[in-house]
Amino acid sequence: MNEEPTRRDVLGHAARGAALLGMGGLIGYLIKHGSVEGAWRINVDQCVNSRLGALGVDVCDKCATTCVLALSAVRAVNDHAACGRCYICPAYFDVNSAINEEGLPSAKLCPRDAIERFEIGWVDPDDPANNYYEYVIDEVKCNGCGRCVMACKEPAGLSSIRLEVRHDLCLDCNRCSIAQVCPDDAYIREPTT
Ligand code: SF4
Ligand code: SF4
Ligand code: SF4
């Protein structure tokens, strides 16, 4: 006997299909994101490279070396509004290098030459300390090694440079390899807003 499906049958099939589809979507979501919603973030008050008071200690480069991506999803970011635009920026120059004929440190700090220095406005050659410069981080070169972050920290700098997870690059791994090795528990998962 070939009976026509009732309205209840059709609705029942549709509901079961929707439930299965929903479950498939949920499983896919959990594979990518784990059971915790949100995104990975660096707590800059906890990370040794940016934590105030942590001076004269080794730079932590685990954000650069541990990410599963060939070039880490972590980058240094300069908050230009907070930057002192210093003539001799300790994050740009290796202040321990020899002084050159211009009266500036002869070497740069960044091992990847990822920071650019631009003059702001007219530069007075007779008053170099009162000239101002913009320091721009090239995110294509930067791997988040943290050296400039440590050098920009007070009292040498104004802590305008910090490490950030670039969410457009991060794969949002369920078990972030950086979070597993971070010595300061500074790599955290937080709800997205
Ligand atoms: S984090 Fe490292 S690679 Fe990136 S700009 Fe700073 S010193 Fe250069
Ligand atoms: S979640 Fe994955 S891709 Fe993102 S920072 Fe961690 S290891 Fe790198
Ligand atoms: S691994 Fe942790 S302490 Fe090291 S640079 Fe990354 S966030 Fe900072």
Q: How would you sum up this structure, described in words?
A:
The chain is α+β, with helices and mostly antiparallel strands. It folds into two domains: 1-35; 37-190, no CATH class. It contains four helices and six strands. It has a two-stranded antiparallel ribbon with strand order 1-6. A two-stranded antiparallel sheet has the order 2-5. The longest helix has 27 residues, at 7-33. It is elongated, with a radius of gyration of 25 Å. 24% of the residues are buried. Mean pLDDT is 85; it is low at 1-35. One iron/sulfur cluster (SF4) binds next to helix 3.
Q: Which regions have little confidence, pLDDT < 50, spanning 5+ residues?
A: 1-35
How much beta, percentage-wise? 15-25%
Shape field = elongated
Integer average pLDDT: 85
User: Main β-sheet: number of strands, strand sense, barrel status?
Assistant: 2 strands, antiparallel
Rg value: 25 Å
Hetero ligands: iron/sulfur cluster
Give the % helix.
10-25%
Secondary structure tally: strands? 6
Question: Which keywords apply here?
Answer:
two-stranded antiparallel sheet; alpha+beta; 193 residues; binds iron/sulfur cluster
How would you summarize this macromolecular structure in one to three sentences?
The chain is an alpha+beta fold and 193 residues long. Helix content is 22%, strand content 16%. The chain has helices at residues 7-33, 62-66, 147-152, 177-181; strands at 39-42, 74-78, 115-120, 132-137, 161-165, 187-190.
How is this fold's topology laid out?
Blueprint lengths: L6 H27 L5 E4 L19 H5 L7 E5 L36 E6 L11 E6 L9 H6 L8 E5 L11 H5 L5 E4 L3
Antiparallel strand pairs: 1-6, 2-5, 3-4
The structure holds iron/sulfur cluster (3 copies).
